[in-house]
Amino acid sequence: MKKGLLMVNTGEGKGKTTAALGMLLRSWGRDFRVCVIQFIKAETGKWGEVRAAKKLGIEWHTTGDGFTWTSKDMEETAARARHGWELAREKISSGNYDLIVLDEFTYTMAYGWLDVNEVLDWLRKNRPANLHLVITGRSAPEELIAEADLVTEMKVIKHPFDKGIHAQAGVEF
Amino acid sequence: MKKGLLMVNTGEGKGKTTAALGMLLRSWGRDFRVCVIQFIKAETGKWGEVRAAKKLGIEWHTTGDGFTWTSKDMEETAARARHGWELAREKISSGNYDLIVLDEFTYTMAYGWLDVNEVLDWLRKNRPANLHLVITGRSAPEELIAEADLVTEMKVIKHPFDKGIHAQAGVEF
Lengths: 173, 173
Hints:
2 copies of one chain form a homodimer. By secondary structure, chain A is α/β, with parallel strands linked by helices. Chain A is 38% helix and 19% strand. Chain A has 6 helices and 6 strands. Chain A has a 6-stranded parallel beta sheet, with helices on both faces.
């Protein structure tokens, strides 16, 4: 039995986006057609992963404003999330991809900008059977977890910030 | 304060190697000098990640026989692990890298082929201060966790094998 998997990387720990990147690299290594849509994160293009994707020629869209949780203009932030979902639907239903990553997509549902049941309903009707979909972010809604094939929780056991060490370029971003 | 991090991805869930790959991609995107040494896994070169690394020109060594846990010749398996560690020490102490991944390295200590205290002692004395080291695998020894800067546990919440879906090329390998 072969089918596209709906995968979720969630939890408070590191490695949610990073594991999605690893899957992207692995898929790219097999000449899969891949695409990334990043929600929430800013369109700076300075992140290590965005630089890598550019070098690899991987299609990469950033749709967030990068300051969602402290945004002064939540209307703008919510509108960006909805725009990102519009783009995601276009890519998903196109049939042009083998694997699509929706990075930090959980927040759009957790914050109520998108309705999780509407999202899942749309996916059931429009996701090509062989398309792998990877969704990352904290606070994955129960409905999404129930629907997914593979769900991994990344748990913090120890974090360098506890020791006063700052985030490191090339490792965490 | 800037320093190379000792990072461990452990736990029973998916994403340990995959997150290390993501970090590799991110580092590569920043023109870091990176290198991967894979323990345990066979030298087939058919994995998606090995193909990707070849395409990217990333230095990648596989040192395992791929059948460690069912190996009929444990002497051979143990010898391969020790050879891998020899190679790792050479790469680590060379000063030629910014990030090195020791994939599935925990098993060499968990199975007793290498002594965790000797490994840590060697690392304390020989690891360049700015080198990031990523170690993956289940059953990370307590001593390693105590020494590490960042430890993440990957937990299975749901796995497609439960539904009778087989491992998928490009996603899981």
